[in-house]
């Protein structure tokens, strides 16, 4: 069990939260988006962002999820790897209530949860594969703050998790500041391009250029004009 780990600066995390997950995913070479089956089940429409406190549990057991309440720091996102198990829940409304009191930002669960109506009443961010009424065991084994697999992505303790209605991405801690710089540099041009598209001002000529460059010849029919 690891009791602590390096975290990205709070300012970096807060600024990353200002970008939506598709933007972040694009600049991570589309490699760090977590399986979309792990989706937002509670927490409203706000963005969840924080350093990953990682938990690995034996499928159907949540002993280490309980212990993580003593390990995670305020603002952390607890990432629980239950190996995608679809039998027992590994998180419920009681743990979520305790976590909210401890200042934990939210949960990403590669598995199932229970007590969803109670969690939604908390207005507490939880992302998971789904729900079940079947509760967990409390026997172990498990690990805290070791690398885990979550939705097909390796998450290390201290990586930055950003999650919103569009999905969940994991930003490796060591590239978080560099990525933020690129996102902020790109934001002005992206906003200008989007505004032009919304006005209907755009050209699709780049598609034909790309196809022709890669050997796909486009044959025009008689009377067809260039667009």
Architecture overview:
Helix 1 (10-16) packs parallel to helix 6 and helix 4 packs parallel to helix 5. This protein has 227 residues and is α/β, with parallel strands linked by helices. The strands form three sheets. Strands 1, 2, 3, 4, 6, 8, 11 and 12 form an eight-stranded mixed sheet that branches. A two-stranded parallel ribbon has the order 5-7. A two-stranded antiparallel sheet has the order 9-10. The protein has helices spanning 10-16, 21-27, 63-68, 93-102, 116-122, 176-198, 205-213, and strands spanning 39-42, 48-57, 77-81, 106-110, 112-113, 126-128, 130-131, 142-144, 148-150, 153-155, 160-164, 167-171. The chain is elongated, with a radius of gyration of 21 Å. The termini are far apart. Helix 3 links the parallel strand 2 and strand 3. The mean pLDDT is 93.
Set down the secondary structure blueprint:
Elements: H1 10-16, H2 21-27, E1 39-42, E2 48-57, H3 63-68, E3 77-81, H4 93-102, E4 106-110, E5 112-113, H5 116-122, E6 126-128, E7 130-131, E8 142-144, E9 148-150, E10 153-155, E11 160-164, E12 167-171, H6 176-198, H7 205-213
Parallel strand pairs: 2-3, 3-4, 4-6, 5-7
Antiparallel strand pairs: 1-6, 2-8, 2-11, 9-10, 11-12
Helix pairs in contact: 1-6, 4-5
């Amino acid at each position: 069990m690891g009791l602590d780990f390096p975290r990205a600066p709070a300012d970096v995390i807060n600024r990353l939260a200002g970008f939506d997950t598709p933007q972040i995913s694009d600049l991570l070479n589309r490699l760090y988006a977590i399986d979309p089956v792990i989706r937002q089940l509670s927490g409203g429409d706000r963005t969840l962002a924080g350093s990953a406190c990682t938990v690995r549990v034996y499928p159907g057991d949540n002993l280490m999820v309980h212990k993580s309440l003593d390990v995670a720091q305020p603002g952390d996102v607890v990432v629980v790897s239950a190996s995608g198990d679809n039998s027992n829940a590994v998180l419920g409304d009681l743990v979520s209530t305790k976590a909210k009191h401890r200042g934990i930002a939210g949960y990403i669960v590669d598995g199932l949860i229970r007590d969803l109506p109670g969690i939604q009443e908390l207005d507490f961010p939880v992302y998971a594969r789904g729900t079940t009424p079947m509760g967990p065991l409390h026997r172990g084994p498990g690990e805290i703050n070791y690398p885990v697999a979550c939705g097909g992505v390796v998450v290390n303790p201290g990586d930055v998790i950003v999650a919103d209605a569009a999905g969940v991405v994991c930003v490796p801690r060591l590239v978080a500041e560099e990525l933020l710089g690129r996102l902020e540099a790109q934001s002005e041009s992206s906003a200008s391009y989007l505004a032009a598209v919304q006005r209907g001002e755009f050209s699709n000529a780049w598609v034909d250029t790309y196809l022709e460059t890669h050997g796909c010849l486009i044959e025009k029919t008689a009377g067809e004009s260039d667009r």
